[in-house]
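Protein: Superoxide dismutase
Species: Mucuna pruriens
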Amino acid sequence: KAFCTMQGPKVNAKFELKPPPYPLNALEPVMSQQTLEFHWGKHHRAYVENLKKQVVGTELDGKSLEEIIVRSYNKGDILPAFNNAAQACMLVWNHDFFWECMKPGGGGNPSGELLELIERDFGSFEKFLDQFKAAAATQFGSGWAWLAYRASKFDVENAENPTSPDEDKKLVLLKSPNAVNPLVWGGYYPLLTIDVWEHAYYLDFQNRRPDYISVFMDKLVSWDAVSSRLEQAKALIASA
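Structure follows.
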């Protein structure tokens, strides 16, 4: 089974804290340096340190992030023996992935095949934006909203894409609570995510989550990274 090693989280058996692919002040004034210092420098760092403690001396020791996530779940349900390690691992993977979803001067519109698929599966780029923002805004409590490439049909209760047909190889929107990401459901290749835990936006936006989501989509998203992940997903599927 091919693991989804998309551009974003790189396998690192030592689980070192990986910096964002830009200086901590590079997203200002859209996302403040203070937010990055707390979110990456404190929260993300703590997740990495916790992961090291959870896997050392266990059968998960030496496994990649993706392997730990997949081995810890059974059809989307976490296996009790791996609960703490899996939660810590997904928080590390999700944050590595999240930082690479953004770039200074991001936002705007995608192009090429990515735009074609968005228009095919959502009706238009504007409809996609509305649905993605709604998914992120309505994720109850802490969690994530995702754009993913679905390689095979697998029913997920919180899938948010009513306009997409049921065939394989479609773009879909997903919401996930807490640390969960689409890797646990099988057949989904994450392309884009937004972190809607409060610590991701509270210093800049307080309780105004919808404002944070709009700014993220309009001024931060790296569509180049999303397009690259789409190409990697298709290559992984073709080689499976």
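Remarks: The chain has two domains: 10-18+32-101, 112-239.
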